Records
---
Amino acid sequence: MRESFIGQVAVAVPLDKLLSYAIPPSLASTAQAGCLLKVPLGRRTAYGYLFSRAAGSLKGLKEVVEVVDETPLFPLGMTAFFERIAQYYHHPIGEVMATAVPVGLFGNPAKSEAAGEQFYSPTALAGMPRGGRQQEILQWLRDHGCASRKELSGLFPGSSQILKRLVELGFLAAEERAGREFRLLPNQEPLRPELSPEQEDALRAILDALDGGAFSTFLLHGVTGSGKTEVYMRAVEEAHRCGRKALVLVPEIALTPQLVGRFQERFSLSGLSMAVLHSGLSRDERKNAWKGICAGTVDVAIGARSAVFAPFERLGLVIVDEEHDASYKQSEGFRYSARDMALLRAQMDGATVVLGSATPSLPAFQRAREGRIGYLPLRERALSRPLPEVKLIDLTRAGVKGSLSKELGLALRETLARKEQSLLLLNRRGFAPFLLCLACGTALRCPNCEITLTYYQKKNLLRCHYCDHVAEPPRACPHCSGVDIRPYGSGTERLEDDLTRLFPEARVARMDSDSMGRKGSYQEMVSRMAGKDIDILVGTQMISKGHDFENVTLVGVVNADAALFLPDYRAAERTFSLLTQVSGRAGRGALPGRVLIQTHNPDHYVFRSVVGHDYEAFFEQEIRFRQEAGYPPFGFLANLVVAAESLEKAEAGAAALAVSLRRRSGQVEVLGPAACLLSRIRKKYRFQVLLKASQRQSLHRLLEAALVFQKNLPGNVKLILDVDPLDMF
Ligand code: ADP
Ligand code: ZN
């Protein structure tokens, strides 16, 4: 007789516990732990993840309907990790699973794959063809390695016949790749450089810990360009040699093709199998990578936030690059921090963790200073290259034309004359942050959000950066009917325009999430920068991340004050790290770099520390403020947001929440309620209650009470829990 089983299932709905289902004998052989199932729930069916099963049967238990995928999607050892995450964030286990192991990857038959794209790369054939255009394209590909037909037709219009001819002549190889938009950038550095003494020391400490086989954490604090990546790569190779799997987390993988390319190149030489977890991969590629990790054939996986859930049976080494980066925290829905969960996972697996950064988060540096985690400093740039010279431009005194001071304008001109490249940071998209009526002073606002609409001149429209509401600019002010309405302030689109006018001979380009909408456009831009086809690149914080362009010798920051005075406890830290990171893009090659920062507050300690490349000076100041206010790392926070379409209901809900929590608060401070800085988003009014505790345990207890409160809220009022919030807007 075939046996029956009872399975414990995490159903992908907001339920905070596992549900039991009967596994009928007909499914007993396929429904193994780790599988994706379909189960009945009320009157419908839902996806569920089978956590465990045991022989037995129970009357009245509902039966599993279907096994969606027979191959387990995660190893058994991970279920404890998932449960810990659910507890930590007070988030339903089924929704944790839906984020960790996306159903879309496995359920439902594949939609037809996007048609393949042709890629061209140079062959080993030396020499040059005769045609001038042929030579031009071949030379470009020899410099850049590989490109898609689409990219090439952008760069060399009408080139498709020439490409065909070059393939016939044997100069190029063509290859069809299905659905892959993600391309690794080649890299012309010498392979495997000799390590500097500091790199040696860091690597040795990491390897000793790996040998020890117990959970240990290091902060690799290396200035920009100090060769942290080299240390990561060696550590991964060594872990592999000891038979241990490695996970590399990067803040935004789409923004780091150079970094991924370096890993890829190195590991293919040393025979490691690497999986890149990237949303640009086709569904099948992703699925294969996932299953390879599950089956143990992948040695190292690299990816952004969600890669922390990569289904390794047991991890030996975890690297978190740019550990300070806020994009490790998911800011919507399930608000988890991949950085923190990587630490938790490593602890459960007995792995070694390397947190890398030029500007460590305050908690990380504090722990290192207290000796609770290992401290591995890289104080010098590789090859003893100097850090760039950083200078402040006092906007209260400098002559400013548009958004550029005379001095910054002059520096751009000089850099241009030397045929070197410049980066200009302006952390604001669009043409202008709002349209202003000159008669009554009204700024045009979003109807759904308490925020001004950003003006885009090229498209002549207004757009909300929160809800994507789009409107045509009105002819008259909706308030006073005045007709003199003007764009106020400037964003990257306006700056790009200004620069094109100021420097007609320069090739100016813009990199922000508006201009990078199309898939592949980011990498195209990075290739053009690397190929020196751009003189001045304007952009948002996107340009501050990870790039290694050797010919960039000038970095300008148009308005450094923008983020400094936001009412947020991390405003100074964020500003310091943004400015340090973007400064670090200058002078990475043989040529020295310089950085000009425009500010109205030249005496502020954040700017002083950036100028001095002095992380510790910044830290000493900032940590005192944190301690006085009881903010992390001296306390633990949770932000509770009550949201509703009715202002009264949202306000009353938050007030009731605060009262209810205060009754049980014990040692926990309950602050508020107060209107959120973004007091209305997507038609919902928002109020917040902030919890501040000196012990994590007491914070967790109070969050339990908040969950009870949440269950009793009417359907049209929502309570959102954010544990360890990174911003509180
Ligand atoms: P970081 O990640 O710390 O900003 P990178 O790892 O990008 O720095 O290194 C900066 C540059 O220095 C890279 O081009 C890298 O190849 C090079 N580099 C790193 N370590 C060494 C070394 N030991 N010798 C020579 N060059 C090195
Ligand atoms: Zn809006």
---
Amino acid sequence: MSKGLLIILSGPSGVGKGTIRDAFFNNPELNLAFSISMTTRSKRAGEEHGREYFFVSKEEFKQAIEDGKLLEYAEFVGNYYGTPLEYVEKLRNEGKNVLLEIEVEGAKQVIQKCPDALSIFIVPPSLDELERRIRGRATEPEEIVQQRLAKAAKELTLSNQYRYVVCNDNVQAAAAIITTIIKSHM
Ligand code: 5GP
């Protein structure tokens, strides 16, 4: 059995990564597994420990870094996020194509460590549309919304480090393009 692909999916906060992922993830032809990250941010309503993230304290996160347990990690709007290395490797060795949904700094680390990684960046149709989507979520205070918007503008300038850039003006169309990209690398 050949080792599974490492797929990086990035895009600014609010671009609709989760919705697009839901639209292609369960396609059995793609044989995908999701890498569940570790984060120090608090749980949002509806999220579960071990499903969206492993929610940990700053101390636990620091320990994981020191123990070399993370493939990559980054700080994002005041919290840490990282990819557990062992879990990803286990899945890839089982032949699964592993999807990392991570931000740009972490993606840069993975691209350096694993040049074969298949990297995909999702862009919004416009910045105005992105702002509308971030505000539509309305789960966070204005200060955090502002930080996420500033971060989004900065992240968009880094899209050129990815192998593919896909525009999310239509969820089904974006998911279909990503499906084609993944299949072409399998
Ligand atoms: P959120 O707080 O909205 O769930 O995630 C914030 C950002 O962190 C998103 O861009 C998300 O893709 C990214 N992220 C989630 N997990 C990881 C991770 O393990 N590493 C890195 N570098 N970014 C992550």
---
Amino acid sequence: MRRLLSVLLAMLLTCATLVVPGHALTGGEVTYDKYSLTVDGRRIVLQSAEFHYFRLPSPELWPDVFEKFRAAGFNAVSLYFSWAYHSPAPGVYDFTGVRDVDRLLRAARQAGLYVIARPGPYINAETTGGGFPAWLKTVPGRARSSEPGYQAAYREWLHRINPIIARHQVSEGGPVLLYNVENEYQVNTDAAYMQDLQDQARADGIDVPITTNDCCDAGSWSSTWASGPGAVQLPGVDDYPQSFECATPDVWGPWGEGLTEKLRDDIPVFAAEYQAGAIDLGNVGYDKCRELTGPAYMKYFYKNNLIQTGATMFSYYMGYGGTNWGWLAQPNDVYTSYDYGAAITEARQLTPKYDEFKRQGYFLESVAPLAKTDAIASPATSGTAALSTTARANPDTGTQFVLLRHTDRAATGTDGTTLDWAAPDGHYRLPAQVKGRDAHVLVAGYDLGGQRLAASTSELLTHAAIGGRDVAVLYGTAGSPGATVLRYASQPSVKVLEGAVRAAYSGGDLRLDYAHEGLARVLVTGGGRRPLLLLIGTDEEAGRFWRASTPTGPVLVRGTELVRSAAVNGDTVRLSADTVAAEVEVFAPPSVRRLRIGQDTARVAAQERDTSGEEEVRVTPTASGSLTGVTRAPAPVRLPELTGWRAHAEAPEAAPGFDDSRWTVADHTTTNSPHPPRTLPVLYADDYGYHYGNLWYRGHFTATGSETRVDLNAITGLRGDYLVWLNGRYLGSAAGGVQADSGDQATPPNPDPGPGHFDIPAGLLKAGKDNVISVLVANMGHNDDWIADDLRFKQPRGLVAASVGATPIAWKIQGTAGQDKVRGPLSTGGLYGERTGWHLPTYPDKSWKAPTALAPGVTWQRTTFRLDLPKGQDVPIGLRFSGDPSPAYRVLIFLNGWNVGQYGGDIGPQREFSLPAGLLDEHGNNTLALAVTAERPTAGPGPLSLFAYGNLRSTR
Ligand code: GAL
């Protein structure tokens, strides 16, 4: 009996892990019509945000990001899958550990998010090769075409990734809702290729609608190929109206109005990638990118897109950007951080952009008629021409949605109007006001739970039926006037609990007039309807609300930093929430008397989470029928200082006597590369199987004695360099080349990429004997293939030309040695220290000495530190370089063996590096190893310290 009970209990616990209460996804068939997607017969407005698992190599943190998406009202996540991340060599694929995409898709489902699966094969994404593995550079045949070499390669990838995606589709009870082929495929017109991607997907069991993301304008794929072979079922369009000029965040919409085009009459408008951040092309730091794409931009552009185009499918790029750890960056566009100025920072912190997503996301989630609307005549804005309106209505319910904004989209002033509104329930004249670079979506004729919202010039955040009454949250700009009209069969009783709200009843209309200030509270009872608690706040107040579903109905919460999930059991509401010391308020059914924070019912049941931090909050009931209390402060955190550094110089490869007998002979005279070699032998690193990170070359030559100069060309990608020695003597360094990066096929390739000319000092050459040139080249990663011309992607890396007068040189090359099975192909390069494990925590460095000033070449510095962060708290840790980054050196940063980033004056503006939990042991010993490559004598990087990005009590 006992055994039976424990089996039953175990079954119950397993079930509990499958579904977060109230976040269960609807399964079944995915269809669509001209209005929206439909899942199992239910229309949905798709509100998705992009996430790159390969930029957060800590699977234990994926649920945190997904729960944060869900808590902002997102119902989907868009996932690129990076071919390069999984495949170190042809035929070799790895989906384990940080590359476990089954786990990723389970985590999305667990958080209640649908998935747009985007396996490419080409993904762009500012990642190395645009997602193409570098070995593909050596495969004959134009990439992104149906040429046989490329076709065999991409089919290999698709047949590995597709079956994984297929088993997580909605039809299988999983989260995958859409499947995206290719990426902004616009220059080629290879319909057979586009068709084959779809045929392969179908053959591998993909049954959801297939989409593709078109780029930018009508010349792109889905407009040209709307039908016939290669046409895609449900295409969408990418829009980046704010550009990537983060240095000028006040410039408004330099790339246009940002209205997503409707591509075909039979499909919904799908904003497949809508700008929600930016790459930092100007190296000004991501805070500026967050400003460029901040709440004002989001309010204006996103709401415009919603109402002017009637779009019902949105995917915002990025929701969380992450880190280009290891050699993940496409070096011409990005440095280590891929924070992207997104709503959630690289260190998983929520920003004001997150609040704006939440305000819009809750609205989309709460108001079902938005999924099906047609354009209608819009209300007049009497008294001013500065403002204008656009409107849509749901043809079944009549519910109207009115966009109110400035006529001149760049206007910065505040203007008021009286809206002359022919709403479904009557004709209303209501005051409204809009500040510059803002936009409001106003609702009329809406069955709001048990209420009838006739019209309002406040925006609707959300509404919830809680304990037999409706609780609705309206909001507007602080100080602006607003009015709301509700319909009743008879005069209701109105009690203003807080704030200054005037109520008047006439002919079935209850009209409330007010200014948006703080959080006003109005209780309406009688009038033939169930009670209504109306909360009317400013934008800021609205942003403080959280909505969570429970099996017994929704709850609303104010004042926590986050609510991940909630459950109501008897007299207790339990919140899985992140908190600081603050007043919190919970709107829950009247039976609830107690509030406990810190427990995630589903996961605790599955014993996946630590409950030691659970907190009983002492609460008191309020006149609004809610409970308030004050949450505890998180325990303070003290981080250790980084001391006890030990250093050791390397680069024996520079010494003439170094044994390179086991290095690869570089003697090819031909290459598959479309870029012809300038000198022979071919020295392109990829041709010898060395694809990522630093490279060494050693060239032996018998000197005539009359040589005067070493002439080299190296292509590294932007931010790269190379260092040169002759017979052990350092000759100097040069910047690596980028080669023609114009993207313009008419532009001839740069004849002299990354040149370096090094005079040979008198007396250094040994005439008639073996002389050795040693070259250390930083391969910064591979170009993308954004315009599908193949040439940019296939640009070689490493030395592309080398000569010492006319004297023949015999070359050897060495890159990464072996594969790091845990960290994957993109973590480790070919430095001596990397080849011999100096970056690994286990390496015995006891004999190393205290650091001194650095000579040109490579020096490693290592230290360890111990952490014991408070349990039940989320304290993301970073590493800060306090000095100014100097072009004299570049630093590879290894945390417990993982290459977490690169620092240096030539790399980018970044001085703080995220050390994500998972790679970081939050309760144990950690090893930091820095590989410093100095181009000239230098003191090296300045003092380093650990810091906390935040400190919350958390159920992360
Ligand atoms: C899009 C592309 C994305 C990303 C973005 C800029 O054109 O599809 O992969 O590169 O631009 O961040």
